[in-house]
Design a protein that fits this description.
Distance between the termini: 25 Å
Number of domains: 1
Largest sheet: 5 strands, antiparallel
Mean pLDDT: 93
Strand content: 25-35%
Helix content: 25-40%
Radius of gyration: 13 Å
């Protein structure tokens, strides 16, 4: 399982597949200071309705110029995406000292 290439959050509603997915958001330029390092990541999210999720995120963060990517589930239809999201978030917290935040 892998993430697709990055694209602007403003284009996400036309790029993300319908249905359940996991999404990552990052700043377009630069890095964010976290307690134990720097990362471009600002958000991870799991949703049963990915189009609604990215539409809401794009509307509420339109001025931030964020980039996103979603999981490419080609051939991996039996993955527990909620568990995958929880694992990604836990790994981020372990590495950077806290959860990413918008």
């Amino acid at each position: 399982m892998r993430f697709c290439p990055w694209y602007p959050l403003s284009a996400a509603a036309t790029r993300v597949p319908a249905g359940e997915s996991v999404l990552q958001l990052r700043v377009a330029v630069g890095l964010i200071d976290y307690p134990s390092g720097k990362s471009a990541m600002v958000h991870y999210e799991h949703s049963l309705d990915a189009v609604a999720m990215v539409t809401a995120l794009a509307a509420s963060h339109a001025d931030r110029g964020l980039w996103c990517r979603h999981l490419d589930l080609e051939g991996d239809r039996d993955v527990d995406l909620a568990a995958f999201h929880a694992k990604l978030l836990a790994e981020f917290v372990r590495r950077f000292g806290r959860a990413p935040s918008l």
